[in-house]
Amino acid sequence: MGLFRKKDPPRQEGRAKPFRFELGWRGMFGLVIVCLCLFLWMFLLGIWAGQTILLPSKESRLTPSGRMTKQPPTQSAPEVNPPPKE
Known about the structure:
Layout: H1 25-54, H2 58-61
């Protein structure tokens, strides 16, 4: 259907033809649907990752006896240079 197309102006030397991207209504609708699905997936993935990082699982909070603790036991770092024993 090149009969109804406008003729491109003659290009000047040294200038590249500008890039043109055209999308019809169906393509635009499909692009919107795909973007919504991607955003929903990223939102759900972010919720899952946030819950995993901020709220540890029950197994990691259990003591060896099987009881729940309020806070995990604190561990002190070993001393690098302990004082000499007399």
